[in-house]
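#struct-help
A.M.: can someone run this one for me? Single chain, 92 residues.
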Amino acid sequence: MFRMLFLLMLGMSVGYFLHGSALVRHAAKGVRVTIPLLLFVFGASIGADGELIANIGFFGWQALVIALLGVVGSFVAATLFRRIFYGKGGAK
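D.P.: on it. Structure tokens below:
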């Protein structure tokens, strides 16, 4: 876990210092190809897991509840933030 975070931070640092170079522009093109490929492989591995597919309804409901609670929580937090920092009318 820490190795992954270290590599992420190292990559961010290199990208920050080399943000205008051709190397970073080529890396950005590679990311556009790599991320859809990773998502495809991830989906294929999920599809190949018979136990997961057999319980997809159960996991689907859990995912739906978590997503809805995340949206509602974000809405409540944004509303509270606006009222606390910008007053009742929304403008300060």
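A.M.: thanks! Residues 86 and 92 are 5 Å apart (CA to CA).
D.P.: also worth noting: The chain has two domains: 1-54, 55-92.
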